[in-house]
Amino acid sequence: MTRFRRRRQPEPEAAPEDVRAELRSLTKEVARLNSHNFIRMHNSLPKVLAFNFARGLVFGLGSVLGASLLLSILAWFLSQVEFLPIIGEWATQIAQQIEAAMEAN
What residue intervals traverse the membrane (predicted)? Predict the structure, then answer.
């Protein structure tokens, strides 16, 4: 079975005025994109390094705070469970240590 290929229709030639207008339009668009804050910031290595460092610090802080909050809620929830003696006692001890630490501060 042979495949038939469609012949490409020749594109009509654009008038020189249209090409110049398109080129001006593209030049304006490239200038607008180059003046964008994202591009200006990434043109400087110290700015990129500072931005990524700050982003890493915020991500790390958020991860630690979020994990602490989730673990404290989980420990509190498990301390409320009395029908599982091992887990209930362990969670109660954790809750007591957290309360003691909060009272000390």
Answer: 57-78
Q: Shortest CA distance to 72 belongs to which of 45, 91, 100, 52?
A: 91
- Residue 76 token pair: 């509190």
* Whole-angstrom Cα Rg for the chain: 32
- Report the half-sphere exposure of 105 (CA within 13 A, side-chain side): 5
Give the pLDDT mean for 78-91.
Answer: 71
pTM for the structure as a whole: 0.45
> DSSP letter at 1?
-
CB atoms within 10 A of CB 79: 19
Give the Å distances, CA to CA, from 3 to 6, 7, 10, 23.
Answer: 10, 12, 21, 39
- Average pLDDT (77-96) is 75
| 96, 75 contact by CB (below 8 A) | no
In a domain? residue 78: yes
Range of the domain at 100: 46-104
